[in-house]
Amino acid sequence: MRSLHCAALLTLLGVICLQSYVTGQNSKTPKECCFEFFLKPIPVASITSYEETRPDCPRAGVIFVTKKPARICAHPSFRWAKRAMDIVDRQALEGSA
Fold it and tell me: What residue numbers bound the domain in which 14 lies?
């Protein structure tokens, strides 16, 4: 009976160690990346903010946050996305002044 308890304890410890290892490996991945891009322009009036994806994402992207709230990915080289980022930046500067 005692050996059964020891075996169960060792198995549990092994699972916990494996879990912490896997979690540690996944902590290096970005929190949010864009894998598909919205192609149509988003009305700037509906955008509240944006954030660029982290450099370790497989593809560069910008995530627009709308009033709904929705998070929409766009490629940062899209002309409409660049324009929207410029306008949101300008609005933020004017609001902080």
Answer: 1-29
